[in-house]
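Sample entry was shown:

___
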Amino acid sequence: MTTMRTAALSLLALAALSACHARRGEDNGGVPGDSDSAKPFSAIAPRDTLHFVGTEPFWGGTAREGTLTYTTPAKPEGTKLAVNRFAGRNGLGLSGTLDGRAFDMTVTPGTCGDGMSDRRFPYSVTLRIGDEVRQGCGWTDTKGFTQPKG
């Protein structure tokens, strides 16, 4: 039942985030993303390494093939957890359990800034641990972040 609840929360969060990416003025019948596409999000393959980072509080980590490592300044080596992957219409959901609390992450395409550097990331990340929601940015080894020129 916990897995179903976690998957449902991930799906709801992903749908909410994806809704803002629909084309302006287009009626998608209430379905997020591009109404011309029924394909699941494929920009981040299961074998790709997803990197993510957030501030206030500082957190980050990586995810690949059903395993996610979550890092904080207090635990820089990270905590590994098994995650379920869900590819929606305009993003990716990862869900599991961290220290007995639901861990739900959504990753959607769109330029993201971490607020600490001038780097630009190709993905926005929303993380929910229990009742706490955090915002961050993400990238993969094949679609990295960009550094400012200068």
